[in-house]
């Protein structure tokens, strides 16, 4: 395998890329990302066609990407002058899959070492700028044009940040633009707290740093931010149509267990120039006990069970 020079969490881009590459080899792929297959062959010509990429978690990663793509296409169709912030982009060829019009300015942002890999393995594209930076150091936003709608896509990123960094990132983007859409995915508090024992994460010397049991409550962080909806993860229609029978059965079981069903949440927020409608008060606020209850890294039970 090519020496990537990546460290820690940066190395987690490899199994996700492999899952997309293996999906593209199927007769009826879910995502159909030919770029992922080409990059994986160059990165590791003899890569194993089994393991994570053929597992239920690999398939879930492909479905997660498709959900983010579908939301992005819909937003860009309505806002063709958008600035796209693709954060923690890794080696994801999203800009090529979505193929936005020339009126869209796209920014792929990730650590400098990852951006160098993108230059080596993915073709350049007009109106797509590569930014080598830590996404939590918001000085990179100084390079981005303002005054236009923004689409922030942070797939597979938020769990690896601290809650403080997630707060700074979301509120910083909302403050910088007049209107826009924010797409993230999150894990619950239990997944964050047990991540140090997760065999896949340990293999890549990575772990989660935050979890949110009720990700919709993140909208309370900014008066202009509004929760929209979530995309199904383990009950997506395309899984029922295309997943192997053994994985469909496994997902049906997972959907019966609330903790497993919500082990990954794909969440969409929007914001506009005027503040969103007032959010409902939490039970704690109604009883005079203050605001959101935050424990370690997650907005927890004050919001109830979403």
Give a written overview of the molecule.
With 306 residues, this protein is of the alpha/beta class. The protein has a single domain (62-303), classed as 3-Layer(aba) Sandwich (Rossmann fold). Helix content is 36%, strand content 15%. It is built from twelve helices and nine strands. The strands form two sheets. Strands 3-2-1-4-5-7-6 form a seven-stranded mixed sheet. Helix 6 links the parallel strand 4 (150-154) and strand 5 (180-186). Helix 1 (13-24) crosses helix 2. It is globular and about 50 Å long. The protein starts with 12 loop residues before the first helix and ends in a 7-residue tail after the last strand. Mean pLDDT is 83; it is low at 282-306.
Descriptive labels:
306 residues; alpha/beta; Rossmann fold; seven-stranded mixed β-sheet; 12 helices; 36% helix; disordered C terminus
């Amino acid at each position: 395998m090519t020496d990537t020079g990546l460290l820690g969490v940066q190395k987690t881009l490899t199994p996700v890329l492999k899952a997309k590459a293996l999906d593209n080899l199927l007769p009826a792929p879910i995502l159909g990302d030919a770029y992922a297959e080409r990059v994986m062959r160059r990165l590791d010509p003899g890569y194993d066609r089994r393991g994570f990429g053929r597992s239920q978690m690999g398939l879930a990663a492909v479905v997660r990407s498709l959900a983010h793509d579908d939301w992005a296409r819909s937003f860009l169709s309505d806002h063709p002058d958008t600035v796209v912030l693709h954060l923690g982009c890794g080696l994801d060829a999203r800009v090529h899959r979505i193929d936005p019009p020339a009126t869209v300015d796209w920014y792929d942002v990730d650590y400098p070492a990852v951006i160098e890999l993108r230059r080596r393995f993915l073709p350049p594209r007009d109106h797509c700028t590569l930014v080598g930076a830590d996404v939590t150091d918001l000085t990179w936003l100084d390079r981005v044009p303002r005054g236009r709608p923004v689409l922030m896509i942070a797939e597979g990123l938020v769990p690896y940040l601290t809650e403080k960094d997630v707060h700074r990132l979301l509120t910083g983007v909302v403050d910088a633009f007049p209107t826009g859409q924010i797409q993230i995915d999150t894990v619950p508090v239990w997944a964050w707290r047990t991540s140090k024992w997760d065999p896949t994460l340990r293999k890549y010397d990575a772990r989660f740093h935050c979890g949110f049991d009720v990700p919709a409550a993140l909208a309370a962080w900014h008066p202009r931010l509004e929760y929209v909806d979530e995309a199904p993860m383990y009950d997506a229609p395309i899984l029922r149509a295309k997943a192997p029978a053994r994985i469909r059965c496994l997902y049906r079981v997972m959907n019966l267990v609330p903790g497993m069903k919500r082990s990954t949440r794909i969440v969409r927020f929007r914001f506009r120039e005027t503040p969103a409608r007032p959010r409902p008060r939490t039970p704690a606020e109604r009883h005079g006990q203050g605001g959101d209850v935050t424990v370690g890294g997650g907005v927890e039970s004050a919001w109830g069970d979403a």
